[in-house]
TrEMBL record:
Pfam families linked to this entry: Redoxin
Presence of the UniProt keyword Repeat in the record: no
Protein name: Thiol-disulfide isomerase or thioredoxin
Protein localization: Cell envelope
């Protein structure tokens, strides 16, 4: 046991010193890569194999008595677009695991825990970026496995994941892995954050990616936006010019502070709307400290003077906004609104209306459901 640990420590030290001595980073590597690995614990049976696949070749690797293997590959692509490889481990024809990694430096080491299925890759910058993305994926896969998860809850978890991935892409805007991951965000469910995706494309490192590559990606992005627009526009909250109460918080600022907004659409002449406001005020007061949602009142089909008088006579515990006839008409058309009050839930990250018509008696239950899924 001690001898094996010493061998493993020596192996890691040798790998680390080799990487440092080369001093390579993605885009500067030579056309030769040495891949070293370690299986722990080493399988007791002989019926197993380790296979290395690159873009051009397949190699079956010999594993020594201590669980180590090594292979030097020649003619590996270098520069802005490093080659990819995968390591496959098979045991007794039953257990099969695959790990993908980037040939981004002259020496790459892999550690495979055949009991847990965990892999560790030590290589260059691209492998570091890949592991960061994998970490996000693993975290959110765990969240997706939660019991009693609803479809809206799954959508919200996915959006959190997309935003973290997008932040990582912007941080590593010269990474080929980030470049490839950016293209995976071209999907209908990210339509609400399309402006952020475009900004990430425009910020790609011009010293790493050619004008032709960036132009091609923008073309693909434009096609994705047009196709998604046909599917998603009906689900998006419109961009409107809200008038807030004097000294109040703007609608955009309020939306930036919470994952969700419960929007109370009402009118000054609407009796049922006014009857339900005390409950909404109570709900807003009792949940003032929560970080999952805020309530926003939006008044339509009402004169501004009547709105002002109503707010002075009956103050609200939640932020109020007024829309003029044109803006209110746009909202009514979007929501297919034929009467008020109307309660809807807005996911602020991508402006998607996740609940278009919440029954008054279900308000608290609906908010609690989304709040639970933020935990």
């Amino acid at each position: 046991m001690v001898k094996a640990s010493l061998k493993y420590a020596t192996f890691l030290l040798f790998t680390l010193l080799t990487i440092v001595s080369y001093g390579q980073r993605a885009g500067r590597m030579k056309n030769q890569v040495t891949i070293s690995g370690y299986l722990k614990p080493r399988p007791a049976i002989g019926n197993f194999c380790v296979t290395l696949r690159t873009d051009n070749d397949t190699f079956r690797l010999a594993v020594n008595a201590s669980g180590y293997f090594t292979k030097t590959i020649k003619n590996v692509s270098s520069g802005a677009h490093p080659g990819m490889a995968s390591l496959e481990y098979n045991e007794d024809g039953c257990h099969h695991t695959v790990k993908y990694f980037v040939l981004d430096t002259n020496v790459i080491s892999l550690e495979v825990n055949i009991t847990s299925g965990e892999w560790t890759v030590s290589g260059g910058r691209e492998n570091k970026v890949e592991e960061l993305f994998n970490g996000i994926g693993k975290t959110y896969a765990g969240k997706m496995a939660a019991e009693n998860l609803t479809m809206p809850g799954m959508d919200s978890i996915s959006m959190q994941k997309y935003l973290l991935e997008l932040a990582l892409i912007q941080q590593y805007n010269g990474s080929y892995i980030a470049y490839q991951r950016l293209k995976t965000l071209f999907r209908p469910s990210t339509y609400g954050i399309r402006d952020r995706i475009r900004a990430a494309i425009e910020r790609l490192d011009t010293t790493r990616f050619s004008p032709a590559e960036r132009t091609a990606m923008l073309k693909k992005f434009s096609d994705y936006v047009e196709e998604s627009r046909k599917r998603m526009d009906g689900a998006l909250f419109p961009s409107l010019q809200f008038e807030a109460t004097p000294g109040g918080t703007s609608f955009q600022t309020l939306a930036s502070r919470y994952p969700y907004l419960l929007i109370d659409v009402w009118a000054t002449w609407c009796g049922p709307c006014i009857q339900q406001h005390p409950y909404l005020n109570k709900l807003a007061t009792e949940n003032a400290g929560n970080k999952s949602y805020a309530i926003a009142g939006v008044t339509i089909s009402s004169r501004k003077a009547d709105w002002d008088r109503h707010l002075k006579a009956k103050p609200f515990a939640y932020q109020q906004y007024w829309l003029d006839e044109k803006q209110g008409g746009q909202l009514a058309e979007k929501l297919r609104l034929y009467g008020v009050p109307r309660y809807l839930l807005l996911r602020t990250a991508d402006s998607v209306i996740v609940e278009k018509d919440i029954d008054f008696d279900d308000l608290e239950k609906t908010l609690q459901m989304y709040r639970d899924q933020q935990q």
